[in-house]
Amino acid sequence: MTGNLTLRSDDRMHFIIINADGSVRAYIYKDKGGDGIRINNGVDGGGDFILRKDGGFTLGSGAQIAPNGDILGGVWGSSWLSSAIAIRDNNINGRATIDWVNQNFI
């Protein structure tokens, strides 16, 4: 095939990749007014991958990459990476400094 493939409609239209046995390998679609372009892994599972309109990216697992580059995921306590780093930094800043120890204990 050469040229463009155009699907014209205000309704959901899928671009579908199907295996020889008829099972769906992948769906690619975008709803009018929806949150972005969705890619579904078909029979292999894994959920929808979403290229969001705001520039972010959502993985099938639910993890996200924000437009500002921040990362949300279970490994960060189901919070944003920037929050996990801020908490760690605050814990480090709350520790006694060498100068404080020298003044109070030596």
UniProtKB/TrEMBL annotation:
Domain Tail fibre protein gp37 trimerization region: 15-62
InterPro entries per the UniProt record, alphabetical: Gp37_trimer (IPR048388)
Superkingdom field: Bacteria
Pfam families per record: gp37_trimer
The protein's name: Tail fibre protein gp37 trimerization region domain-containing protein
